[in-house]
Design a protein that fits this description.
about 40% helix; binds calcium ion; 10 strands; binds beta-D-ribofuranose; alpha/beta; two-stranded antiparallel sheet
Length: about 325
């Protein structure tokens, strides 16, 4: 089976780091490029973190490019309450030495798409959509080149940054509006799905038992991240590892159930800006280029993740 080629656009972030490990460790993924965008922390911090994570995992050959340092229209909102002041608080990665690609992330995305056969590369954004929106405005022809967009963001019945808006969408709703309205096949892996993606104590023990530097980093990351969720949201369980789900879907779409539905982004609501308005009326779903993920096989997700951690250690 040919590998799935992907470009990961991210803002690490603890759960972004998990998504990077899954992409690097899974034998069915060919990670062509990693691009960074302001989100969980400032652009310089998330770019530093991306370099540190990639180098730590031994992935020194994959281009990394820094992208947009602010949203298209709005002021910057980061998430220190979730990921700390560094974006990866609770962990201690060695200082990265690998170089960054000299291109802007938008150009690396466009160049990579143009240098491969059409419809062979999946875009996997797991942060705000600023880079992807700018790429499609700069080179509209990429809509025809992309195989599909599989993104973590949004939700059809709940939000996290507001009652109805999810963080990756609300931080740059204008960018999200552009990305959701282009006619490429798009799968929204939103909060309805990712809230099912939680490890339990047994899974955490299995990860810890791998006893490798990467597994130790994963345990430190998820413990920090879960402690914050417990304190803020009154969770008693482990926190949902949102971004992991987008990569997992690319690897194995059958790990999730999906429903076709048009989705649009609210830009002007007094209470609802950044909402991913999803239309489940039966008459709306014909000829629809978007779908939402609804149900996750959580055991398969963690088995897949643990397998990738084992392979990264070799
Ligand atoms: C999303 O927001 C970020 O904090 C996470 O990395 C994830 O991409 C979840 O709402
Ligand atoms: Ca993210």
């Amino acid at each position: 089976m040919p590998k799935c080629k992907i470009i990961l656009d991210c803002d690490p972030g603890h759960d972004d780091a998990m998504a990077i490990f899954l992409a690097l460790g899974n034998p069915n993924i060919d990670l062509l490029a990693v691009t960074t965008v302001v989100g969980n922390q400032t652009l310089s911090k998330v770019t530093h973190n991306t370099r540190a994570i990639m180098e730590f995992a031994g992935a020194t050959h994959i281009p990394i490019a820094a992208g947009c340092a602010r949203p298209l229209v709005r002021t910057i909102q980061t998430a220190p309450e979730v990921h700390g002041s560094t974006g990866l608080d609770g962990t201690n990665l060695p200082k990265p030495t690998i170089a960054i690609d000299s291109r802007h992330a938008v150009d690396l995305i466009i160049d990579t798409l143009k240098s491969h056969p059409p419809k062979t590369i999946t875009l996997v954004p797991i942060g705000g959509l600023t880079n992807i929106a700018l790429a499609v405005r700069k080179a509209p022809e990429i809509v025809e080149l992309v195989k599909e967009v599989v993104l973590m963001g949004g939700g059809y019945h709940t939000g996290n940054r507001s009652a109805v808006a999810e963080f990756n969408i609300i931080i740059d709703p204008e960018a999200a509006h552009i990305v959701f309205n282009e006619k490429w096949p798009l799968t929204m892996i939103g909060l309805d799905l990712t809230h099912q993606a939680r490890p339990d104590d047994q899974i955490m023990e299995q990860i810890a038992a791998l006893n490798t530097p990467i597994s130790q980093f994963v345990v430190d990351s998820l413990n920090y991240y879960t402690a914050g969720y417990r304190q803020r949201n009154g969770y008693t369980n482990h926190a949902p590892v949102h971004d992991l789900c987008a990569v997992a879907y690319v690897i194995s779409p059958s790990i999730m159930e999906t429903l076709k539905a048009p989705i649009d982004i609210e830009l002007q609501g007094a209470l609802t800006t950044g909402m991913t308005v999803t239309d489940f009326r039966p008459q709306s779903t014909t000829d629809c280029h978007t779908q939402v993920a609804t149900k996750l096989d959580n055991s398969k997700l963690w088995a897949m993740f643990i397998d990738s951690l084992k392979r990264l250690d070799k």
